[in-house]
Design brief:
Elements (H helix, E strand, L loop, with lengths): L1 H15 L8 H8 E2 L2 E2 H12 L3 H12 L11 E2 L3 E2 L14 H11 L9 H19 L6 H10 L1 H6 L6 H24 L1
Antiparallel strand pairs: 1-2, 3-4
Helix pairs in contact: 3-6, 4-6, 4-9, 6-7, 7-9
Length: 190
Amino acid sequence: MRAAALILLLALAGCASTPSNINNVCAVFSQKDGWFGNWYSAAKRAERTYGVPVPVLMATIRVESGYKAHARPPRKKLLGFIPWKRPSSAYGYSQALNGTWAQYKQETGRWTADRNSFSDAVDFVGWYHQRSHRRNGIALNDAYNLYLAYYAGQEGYARGTWKNNSHMKEAAGRAASMANSYATQLAGCY
C-alpha cells in the first residue's frame, strides 16, 4: 500500500514539474505526455477549437510563465526590502488575471477550470487569442500581434498602448520568435 501511494505521489509531482528544455517544444511534449496528462493532445484540442496554431499557443505560455504551473509576478518591495503586494493577480501557466479567468469560465462553461492545469491554461490562451482575432482582426497565426493583445488586453491593443512600450514589443518579439522556432521543431517531432 505504501509503495503504491509513493508511486502515485511521485507521478503526480512530475505532472506539476516544469519541463527541463522549454526552448524545444518536442522536448516539452515528450516530457509532459504521460499517464496523467497529455500536453500535446491538450494543445491540439485548443488549436481545433479556436483555430490558433499549437506553436503560437505554446510560445505564449513559454513567454508568460516558462511553463511554471504556479507562476506569479514577483512581489513589490516596501522600503526596498520588505516583500509587499504583487502588481497583478496573474497566475498559472497562462498568467491569466482573476477577472479575465472568471470571464473565460463563464463564457466557456468550464466552471472547474484551474489556472495551474496545463490543459485549462492552453484552452484559455486559445480562447483569448480567438477573441483578439474577432475584436481586433489579428490573424490567428500572427504570434507577434496576438501576444501584444494578450499583454495589453483587448482594449489596450485597440488603443495602441503598446506602440510606445518597448517592453511589450520585446516580449511580443520573443513570442513570435519562439512560435517560429516551435513550428520548425514541431514539424520534425510529430
